[in-house]
Design goal:
Length: 610
């Protein structure tokens, strides 16, 4: 199934460097503390992305990794900021050291013209992998003449932190290539001689490992081929687990034998030094904790919302963002990981806008990647409440989201959405379904791309994400970041959310017409496309989640049932392609096209998803 996507933005390197320099100048005026430390880490991440973009640009031109003046200068800047992060972290968020003025000047002097592709580091953005964890993990390796090799993308910055912790020289970074389960390295002769000539130990740094650990394996394979003994190779991974099921026997044996220290999130941020504990990060606005933090990620939130486990909706525990419930004398607060980096201000501003408009719980603050919002004691939405009043609220909500500008990196264009639709439909419903989708939609792609107006959509309209307060008001519990999730969808035209609402709530034709009218500006072709794309994507996501939930048969069963519901919704649309024309006519009529017959309703919006 096709579900995931890698976010990247394209930007001139000089603009990125200007932003880093301006951020450091502002940082110098701030008082010590967690807030400043978080912004320092965000600037460090931005510098590492700049170094990654420079290295990857050269790699694409040369088809191999090598040393370049711009790359060396950018690595020195990342290393200088990593040292500041280490000083701040180890000093209780106190002074962070001098600004790297000379390093910034050196990067500026060596910066090539043109734009760079800056890849989003997934661990920082989605999986609560903090740079400080690698700093602590590397400190647990024995003293020695270490050389550090980082795996791009996220390994660019993590390798610098490891080098700081180990007192090592500036790290190398590499880009493994090839089949995802059989990665290899492409190094120029200079790098190969440099690695072969080092007599000390090596530390390989990356997030993961994933299904195969082949990126870690590719670096270790290259080192061994250059004469490095296996016992001289250590790993600094993002978690303490084993390699995934697609790993080779050779890689698995090496992994079991190797040193691979890990600093667990809980050990650092739940049980560590008092100033580092998550429970204290918001004490100034929420008050001190009067009970231990309660973890509610991994689907645990359902125990707080539902009376019985039999009522639980499906969840994808492995891909949920890390979440905790904080209890103080002033009430309860949800602490949710929302991602590290320079986008924190933008994320918090969106959270405040959604709350001010009456759609979401109240946000208090966003610090070092964690958003604090008031916990709302409310019941989940029930079928009996999905009536006219709820549809009216949906219309207001989606009309509001239509005003929220999309992110610069955008989302999947119609061509990629069609690729996803055909892949997922083919696997779930057969190749005839995939061919039918391609025949129907491939000729329309250019027109669809021109019509789309990507915005910060909600992305997931599931009934389980809606709450009903005692006074009858509706709230969206999770509305902040689905448009910026680790998947291929991203920002889309509001037609995506309209299609999602119709799919999730099995809206009757008249309800669907009312929703389209309230939202306004719904393009008929895009709506018809997204009526198919939304269930195809959610089908793929639920299927993949079910395949990873074998450790919990009940969860796997819930996910399989959800995937089957999306498959039925998609199959119903594919079995009656006249539905496209009916939907198109109804929406065009609402848009004021007088050449269509009166009385044509949106009669084919599909069956209710069970």
């Amino acid at each position: 199934m096709l579900v995931y996507g890698d976010a990247a933005r394209t930007e001139p390197g000089a603009a990125v460097l200007d932003r880093i320099a301006a951020g450091l100048a502002t940082l110098a005026q701030e008082a010590p503390g967690l807030a400043r430390h978080g912004r320092l880490v965000a600037l460090f991440i931005e510098a590492a992305m700049l170094a990654q973009g420079l290295a990857d640009r050269d790699f694409e031109a040369r088809a191999s990794d090598r040393r370049t003046p711009a790359g060396e200068a950018a690595t020195a800047l990342v290393l200088a900021l990593a040292a500041r992060v280490a000083v701040s972290w180890r000093g209780g968020f106190g002074e962070g050291g001098p600004a790297p003025v000379a390093e910034i000047a050196a990067v500026r002097a060596a910066m090539p013209e043109g734009a760079l592709s800056l890849r989003q580091p997934e661990g920082y953005a989605f999986y609560a992998l903090y740079p400080e964890q690698v700093l602590e993990a590397a400190s647990r390796l024995p003293a020695g003449d270490w050389r550090v090799v980082g795996i791009r993308s996220i390994g660019t910055g993590l390798a610098a932190l490891a080098a700081v912790a180990l007192g090592a020289p500036p790290p190398l970074t590499v880009r493994p290539v090839g089949h995802p389960f059989r990665r290899t390295l492409a190094l120029d002769e200079g790098l190969r001689r440099e690695l072969a000539g080092h007599a000390g130990p090596f530390a390989i740094v990356d997030e993961g490992p994933g299904l195969s650990g082949s990126s870690f394996g590719a670096v270790a394979d290259t080192l061994e081929a250059l004469g490095v003994a296996r016992e001289r190779i250590a790993f600094l991974p993002g978690h303490g687990g084993d390699l995934g099921p697609e790993a080779s026997d050779t890689h698995r044996a090496r992994w079991r034998e190797a040193r691979r220290p890990v600093a667990d999130f809980g050990a650092l941020f739940l049980d560590g030094a008092p100033e580092r504990r998550l429970a204290t990060w918001f004490a100034d606005i929420a008050g001190p904790a009067i009970a231990p933090l309660e973890e509610v990620s991994g689907g645990r939130w359902r125990a707080l919302r539902y009376a019985s486990e039999a009522d639980w909706p499906a969840a994808d525990p492995q891909n949920e963002r890390r979440k905790y419930l904080l209890t103080t004398a002033g009430g309860r607060y949800l602490l949710k990981f929302s991602g590290l980096g320079l986008g924190e201000a933008e994320t918090f501003a969106l959270a405040r806008r959604l709350h001010a408009a009456g759609f979401t719980p109240e946000p208090l603050a966003l610090r070092h990647g964690v958003l604090a919002e008031r916990w709302v004691d409310a019941a989940p939405l029930r079928p009996a409440e999905m009536g006219e009043r709820f549809v009216a609220h949906l219309g207001r909500y989606l009309a509001f989201r239509r005003t929220l500008p999309g992110r610069p990196e955008g989302g999947a264009d119609p061509r990629l959405l069609l690729t996803m639709m055909t892949r997922n439909a083919g696997l779930a419903l057969g190749e005839d379904a995939a061919k039918a989708l391609d025949r129907a939609w491939a000729p329309r792609l250019a027109r669809l791309a021109a019509a789309a107006n990507p915005v910060a959509i909600d992305g997931r309209l599931d009934d389980a994400e809606w709450l009903v307060r005692d006074d009858g008001r509706f709230l969206k519990a999770d509305a902040l970041d689905h448009h910026a999730a680790h998947d291929l969808v991203g920002c889309q035209d509001i037609a995506w959310d309209v299609a999602g609402a119709i799919t999730e709530f099995g809206l009757a034709p008249r309800e669907a017409e009312t929703l389209c009218r309230q939202v306004g500006g719904v393009d008929p072709d895009l709506l018809a496309l997204h009526r198919r794309a939304y269930p195809a994507f959610r089908l793929g996501a639920a299927t993949q989640a079910a395949s990873s939930a074998g450790w919990d048969p009940a969860e796997a069963q819930r996910l399989e049932a959800r995937a089957a519901g999306y498959a039925r919704a998609l199959a119903a649309l594919l079995s009656d392609e006249s539905a496209y024309e009916i939907v198109e006519m109804a929406v065009r009529r609402e848009a004021g096209h007088a050449d269509l017959p009166a009385g044509v309703g949106v009669a084919a919006f599909g069956p209710e998803v069970s």
